[in-house]
């Protein structure tokens, strides 16, 4: 599940590699992936790519007057290949073939669901595109100042839900929220409106530190071509049953329908082990 750090490093590495390249042709083999038809994808033919920017967890592929917006959802990947895709590649959703070489920029999607999408927009329309217009402020590199952040988070919902809400703050998902809350020594179930000033400042630093640290790690560890699965430098998320990297207490987990939330009882919940939702459902 790509989140802000994974999208950022992908945008940087692939963006630098394709800047200046001219699109030769395009294909959209994923039936539902391309959500716009005007301008058509072929409007990119002969156009020079400027680079790739990131907004929240979205890519903005900058082609001058046009911008291709891509949302990977949970199982998409943006990759650059030296060879054209085989038509048998069932993961291909949108392809941009580059002129003068065999390179191909590919939106791929793994798994059975088709949820990743692309929209080709006129560049002035990008900010009013519905998903982008609804995004909260960026979580990194400069999240809102502490007072502003506290006001944003002052909701009667638990932190692990608020921080993953892209309308509140953009870029954090299921993996990095666990790492951030662990770093800040905050319970995932603490309500946003119960955060006091000092906790908010610590949380803000944890957001910057964890997301920035991951990007730095990727910057030194990764190069093109990017692997299908990026090695996420996580120490808490999906590390349940292992010792907490700070205090050695066993990391616990709460299991939901389709994901798992991990935390350290000593560092984050005053020793309390939170109810496992799977178990409580069975006991009803
Ligand atoms: Zn701990």
Indicate the low-confidence ranges by residue numbers.
none
Following the backbone from N to C, one meets helices and strands in this order, namely HEEEEEEEEHHHHHEEHH
How is the largest sheet built, in terms of strand order?
1-6-7-5
| Helix/sheet category | alpha+beta
Small-molecule binders: zinc ion
What's this model, at a glance?
The chain is built from 8 helices and 10 strands.
In words, what does this structure look like?
This protein is α+β, with helices and mostly antiparallel strands. The strands form 3 sheets. The protein has a 4-stranded antiparallel beta sheet with strand order 1-6-7-5, covered by helices on one side. Strand 2 and strand 3 (58-63) form a beta hairpin. The mean pLDDT is 94. Helix 5 (174-183) packs across helix 6. The two termini are 31 Å apart. The chain is built from 8 helices and 10 strands. The structure holds zinc ion. Zinc ion (ZN) binds at residues 244, 246-247, 249, 264, 266-267.
Spell out the key features of this protein.
284 residues; alpha+beta; 8 helices; 10 strands; binds zinc ion
Layout of helices and strands, plus pairs?
Layout lengths: L3 H15 L4 E5 L23 E5 L2 E6 L2 E6 L4 E6 L10 E7 L5 E6 L7 E6 L7 H4 L12 H8 L5 H4 L11 H10 L13 H25 L30 E4 L4 E4 L1 H4 L8 H7 L1
Antiparallel strand pairs: 1-6, 2-3, 3-4, 4-8, 5-7, 6-7, 9-10
The chain binds zinc ion.
